[in-house]
Design brief:
- It is built from twelve helices and 14 strands.
- The chain is of the alpha/beta class.
- It has a seven-stranded mixed β-sheet with strand order 7-6-8-9-10-13-14, sandwiched between helices. Strands 2-1-3-4-5 form a five-stranded parallel β-sheet. A two-stranded antiparallel ribbon has the order 11-12.
- α4 links the parallel β3 and β4.
- It is elongated and about 65 Å long.
Amino acid sequence: MSQKKLTTVLASMLLLSMSLVGCNSQGTAPAQNNQSGGNTASSGGSSSGGGGGGEKILIATQSPLSGSQSAIGDAIKTGAGFAIEKRKEEFKQLGFDLQLFPQDDQADPKIGVSNAEMLVANPDVLGVVGHFNTGVAIPSSVKYETGSLVMVSPANSGVTLTEEGKKTVHRICARDDAQGPKGAKYAKEVLGVKSVFLIHDKTAYGQGLVDQVKAQFEKDGVQVLGYEGVNQGEKDYNFVVNTAVASKPDMIYFGGIYPEAGIIVKQAREKGYTGMFMGGDGIDSPDLIKIAGAAAEGVYLTALAGDAKQSEEGRKWAEEYEKVMGKKPGTYSDYAYESANVILDGLAAAIKENGGKKPTREQVLEKVHSTKDYQGKFVKVTFDEKGDNEFADVFMYKFEKEGTKFIGKIE
């Protein structure tokens, strides 16, 4: 072979070798992003390395962003987004590009689980704010546990969620074994209720809450005249409403979400029911008034978050929120904001402990799980071993013509 041909062959081999090295220089390809709504933040990047290159960190939300429960779902997404917007610069100074990564779980357990699998497969996701529905959170949390992906919920009150021994699961709100009994005691001691008809929506949240309410009413000697379930998504609940109205209870209590509650309240009033209504935090939405109209006036509800507008600091926060996010804060916007900040505090501590490098999920989880005496604008947080907040409270509200009136904390 001539010297010229030999040189050409060697050059070709060198170029081929460089090409092969280049194809593999990024390691394993990142997981594909198959989110069901939300933004389009990509899933590229590494889960390790120095913090000087503006590495991406995603904080996800999971809540219903479409369908009948989207009003609260969007409020959760936007509340978390506000926290991230306010702290972007802080994390930029640490060398990281902090982004919101919202997912639409559609209040559907199957979609929530599918989203959770995608989030776990994406190495840039280091925390999840969510869910709204306990029945979605419980199966989704199984996936978070396998990926050591920390979850902090602003709204899930179902008792079972934190009773399954998952270290990744946390919530800053009260559980239904606090919300239910406190609502029942308020009904008896303050409102003078002596008989009640119970209706639930057959979900983990709705039925679980009503079971807690029922136990407390029976303990306190309040007569339970009926206990019935309805299916979510239907437009007519006359069969159950007829039964409830015919029993002439002092109160109809509903465990479920506002779309169904609005129909039940409206149909009961149309049939001449003049007694009281009460529900849990799931009915806490202005959309209840849109559905039930004037019939919504006077409906009581227990809530897991206080009224931000009760303090000057809260009013200023709400004004800034509207200016930055382009909409007023909604139900659970404040607790989603606090949930995101609990995660971000843990994330910042993990970065510091990791020498300024991007931490692992396990490192972030450890810091969040050990949260003690976090003092937010609206809630104080210390997580117990189960992931429940030792300082969670329950509040009472009442629907009026233009919205809800804050009554106060239930002691």
